[in-house]
Amino acid sequence: MIKISDIVAEVKLSRVTVSAILNDRYKKLGISEKTAQRVLAQAEMMGYVPNQNALSMRIGRSFTIGIISSSISEEWGAKILCGALRAVQSTQYSLRVETVLGAEEERSALKRLLGSRIEGLFCFNINPPPETDEFFKLATERYRVAVVSNNCSFSFPHKRVEVDNSTAVMILMEHLVGLGHRQIAHIGGDRTSEVSRERSEAFLRGVEHFNLKPDECPVRLSNWEWDQARTTARQLLEFSEPPTAILCVNDAIAACVIQVANELNIKVPNELSVVGMTNDRMCQLTVPPLTTVGIPCEEVGYASIRALFELIESKRELATQEITRQQCVPVIRNSSAAARPLYEAIQ
To answer: Of 5, 104, 155, 307, most Cβ neighbours within 10 A?
Structure first.
């Protein structure tokens, strides 16, 4: 490992001078730009890498951001993580990532991160019970840790970076209604997820906005489980008057609906339109390819980490409730088409 003393030996300057240049303090000490550039060039040629631990100990900061998530293995979660990693490039910050399942793992992960003296915490897809929610609140307040979240049901004030779920659902509803659909069902996630709640509530607002009949536009939950989604889809499609379109909480649930439609010999999109949300890669693998909305997951991760930087560096009041929304883009494919006229459906 190349040390500062190795660079000192090459440039024939004092350790104080070289250290000040490498730590970007040389202007305060009156060191010339020419000397600084000579030292920096020598350091780069030798492959010098600053000792982040030593810097942290010297100035009393860790420059560490913690991430806790239950969805890193999901495609959308991996994209959020990629965005977070992109945000720390070319900065002195580093990330420590914890993947969790359930309240006990969430609490243990936060304890480990606090032990490493994180300065900020980014959580996505964490929906804790009340006692764990209170633990997160008290622990982050005690250690003065800035908090940013996405799709979390924390009750305490903090910065949130979300996608514009309401507008995304309304885009899909407008698309389906424009195709003549009046009987539109919705298959959501569960009762605890913030994303599921927002999308289901937006669907109900859409039913009202487009003057649809609520009893012809049922809402069902899948608990994010594919088997349950298939069962729910089958129940909806075996109604005496089944929906002509189904709006799903995500693309995986929509793919399950298409599978069930194929099993029941219901043609998509001629007899049933199916739309999803997120624009995962599977959308182009279903038959037919899936209409959806593209959710900028990488931008969510990037914006969340940049928001943490702002909170940390500006030393703002941490317990401030703010929400910013990332916009979604419609992606129209072949799983949605004009609703059949009523007389065709009866025949």
So the answer is: 307
